[in-house]
């Protein structure tokens, strides 16, 4: 590991003062960054520990919830308002990693985490356009069973690994940022970038800019929501396909629907095409299937991951069916 | 300064030293094991306060002023912790390499259950989880055992906690 200096920030402004240079990294729970430093993929000169910054989870006046970027994953999933009003978020977080990792990992770190593409990690032996821009991608003609089928480019097919961000995409969350030039906020779905020709640019953070919070708007229908994750083993594994869904059916008609996909795309994937087909239509398996077909119509599979197209469609139909027929959030261990 | 099993210790000057290496190589507390060193196996699980974490993905420098507990801190004057005794009685291990992490993890897990934290397999996120074998398997999934002693591990955890339904 490259030598670095360690410093602890007292608040967001202090963090940005300490970490404003391009050679610095903000340290959250460390569950991804420390591993990447050990592999020499990340080589910061300064680590600014922000685990004590913005750790609160507070209701917003007028509805909604403000989750500090320093809040641990466990604290968010444990929070009564999250469990009650946004079960899709609690269950998405609980589906990720292990309890030990969730006790360490922060919300800000979850947003900023990097792909687990094996070729990205293989610094010694594989080409990767994320690690070395312009070098080429060995995943495209390699073993790509776990890779993306949506939002891919000729430069990169790496999946975004987060479960939590998929739920946040479905909920229409916004991200609060603090940088040298002040504060800004933007929708979570605009925080992560598609790879296009520059897969090394993964999000819109400016140098030194810090994620300070994630805000959930008031969404009463989200109390009827869930997250289903399909993977090779039933725990401690990344998603092959995951679906976050909020659904309100009234008189047999879909009145509100929010859908997002994980495990299949280069960023947390809001399924807008499927939502457009579902809205105002009868809540039937046929309509659910048509919506899933529309969302996956642009899928671009590689050699080994074509199975994800049908798997994603079936998982979408299954989750929508569950939410339209059951009381809402139910177990599917 | 860090407090390990109640005793103060000087933190390393090199910020790169992981909490795991600090425990094993600096303090010679080799009970905490290094398995994958990348957060995927749970062998290095320790307790920070009452929370289970992975010491391989933490830097020792982050724990200035904090208290942690390791497997060495669980027995009192040579008397094993009830979970340690149960692991012996119920064959919760073969080679024993994952055992310190399993036991620290199980102690942290029981605290999480008491706090009412649900798991991915908890049916009702708002109700106290009925902690059956399925729940325990999910909650302990961060600790791998290559000998496959999982049934004994679950038996041992159930045996020491009457609140846990078999």
Automatic annotation (TrEMBL), chain A:
InterPro entries: CO_DH_flav_C, CO_DH_flav_C_dom_sf, Diverse_Substr_Oxidored, FAD-bd_PCMH, FAD-bd_PCMH-like_sf, FAD-bd_PCMH_sub1, FAD-bd_PCMH_sub2, Mopterin_DH_FAD-bd. One of its GO terms (molecular function) is FAD binding. Keywords: FAD, Flavoprotein. Coiled coil: none annotated. Residues 1-221 form the FAD-binding PCMH-type domain. Pfam families: CO_deh_flav_C (PF03450), FAD_binding_5 (PF00941). PROSITE patterns: FAD_PCMH. The keyword Flavoprotein applies. The keyword Flavoprotein applies. It comes from the Bacteria. This is Xanthine dehydrogenase family protein subunit M. It comes from Acidisoma silvae.
Automatic annotation (TrEMBL), chain B:
Keywords: Iron, Metal-binding, Oxidoreductase. Transmembrane segments: none annotated. Gene3D superfamilies: 3.10.20.30, [2Fe-2S]-binding domain. Pfam families: Fer2, Fer2_2. The keyword tRNA processing does not apply. Residues 1-74 form the 2Fe-2S ferredoxin-type domain. InterPro entries: 2Fe-2S-bd (IPR002888), 2Fe-2S-bd_dom_sf (IPR036884), 2Fe-2S_ferredoxin-like_sf (IPR036010), 2Fe-2S_ferredoxin-type (IPR001041), 2Fe2S_fd_BS (IPR006058), Aldehyde_Oxdr_Iron-Sulfur (IPR052914), Beta-grasp_dom_sf (IPR012675). GO terms for molecular function: 2 iron, 2 sulfur cluster binding; metal ion binding; oxidoreductase activity, acting on the aldehyde or oxo group of donors. Signal peptide: none annotated. PANTHER family: OXIDOREDUCTASE WITH IRON-SULFUR SUBUNIT, OXIDOREDUCTASE, IRON-SULPHUR BINDING SUBUNIT-RELATED-RELATED. This is 2Fe-2S iron-sulfur cluster binding domain-containing protein. The lineage of its organism: Bacteria, Pseudomonadati, Pseudomonadota, Alphaproteobacteria, Acetobacterales.
